[in-house]
Amino acid sequence: MHVRPRLAAAAAAAVFLGAALTGCEDGAAPPRRAVTPSGSPIASSAPPLPPTVSAPATPATPVATATAAPAPATRLSMSVTTPGGRLDLVRGGPAREFTVTLRNGNSDAYRHLLLAFQMEALVPEPGDAPGPQASLLLERRDPGTGRWGPAELRVAGDLKPYSLYEGGSPLARDEVRTEHYRLRVTPGGPTGSSPLMVRAIDTDAPEGTAEERRRPAASSLPHRTRRAS
């Protein structure tokens, strides 16, 4: 019985089976791979990365809160106005009206603020005889009733001391008040030109204080009186 070829075939099959079991030609054992419980292989772990360090948060720049600047200090002002800008009177003729407007500032409130009117003596025009200065008549309109009543007009060339004035009415901060006056000359009154001076006097100001404190506002209005034609 001839058996040598069968032995050779069996040997060859054994060699092939061993190579298949070892997975490599040189017989080295293959590296073992870990598996998860589910059977999936776990990839080989690389060296751990250093922890990420977050940059420190930049503190927020505080937003400046806008604050309103304090209002600038303002003072009392006064204006004296009339149509045409001047008082043109005729002796014995109708009265001419004018207004005095007080605009108080935000600095002072007045308890007694008095309006004082003054005019220098009129020099007669050529051919006119001087008349009594009392013939210049100043009147004020009452804001409550609308009636006209006499107001004081001083005719002199000197200045009356402020300490001699009394009375007046209150004026609050930022208050605006307009008063109405009128001036006329009697038939026997003087003629000539002289400005009508108006002063606002704080009668509560202590004696010896600065003039601008005792007389916080002043103005004037051009004036001329002529004889009737």
General description of the model:
With 229 residues, the protein is mostly beta strands. The chain contains 2 helices and 13 strands. Strand 5 and strand 6 (148-150) form a beta hairpin.
What separation lies between the terminal Cα atoms?
181 Å
Which structural class fits the helix and strand makeup?
mainly beta
Average residue pLDDT: 80
| Shape type | elongated
Compute the CA-based radius of gyration. 56 Å
Largest sheet: 5 strands, antiparallel
Q: Which range best describes the helical content: under 10%, 10-25%, 25-40%, 40-55%, 55-70% or over 70%? A: 10-25%
**Uncertain regions spanning at least 5 consecutive residues:** 1-31, 33-44
Residues in β-strands, percent: 25-35%
